Amino acid sequence: MSTGLLVQYVIVGVVVLCGALISLRKLAPQLTSRWLASLALHFDRADRSAWQRSLGRRLQPKQATGHCSDGCSTCGACGPKPPAAAHAAQPLEFRPRAK
């Protein structure tokens, strides 16, 4: 196997992996947030080096940070939500097909 072919396989593999991670993030956001939170806890320990702790703080998902300015409303402390707009009931209307 030539070096150019190996580099090409590595680049294609990285692109496919990035695409899979992006699509997983879009389709399963809670799952990826849990994964990021567990990875952040793994790196952000007292016995880790400074760069690992900073990486752990960067990997921490927004809803896990606990800032009230995020507007995530997961804890309910950001204030009451505005009432949802009442949907007016619309009758079901059947129309014959045009001939």
Q: Into which percent range does the helicity of residues fall?
A: 40-55%
Poorly predicted regions are none
The sequence of SSEs as H and E is HHHH
What Rg is obtained from the alpha carbons, in whole angstroms? 24 Å
Structural class: mainly alpha
Quick structural summary:
The protein is mostly helical and 99 residues long.
List keywords for this structure.
mainly alpha; single chain; 99 residues; 0% strand; 4 helices
Would you give an account of this structure?
With 99 residues, the chain is mainly α. The chain is built from four helices and no strands. The termini are far apart. α1 (3-27) packs across α2 (29-43).
Chain-wise SSE layout:
Elements: H1 3-27, H2 29-43, H3 50-59, H4 62-65
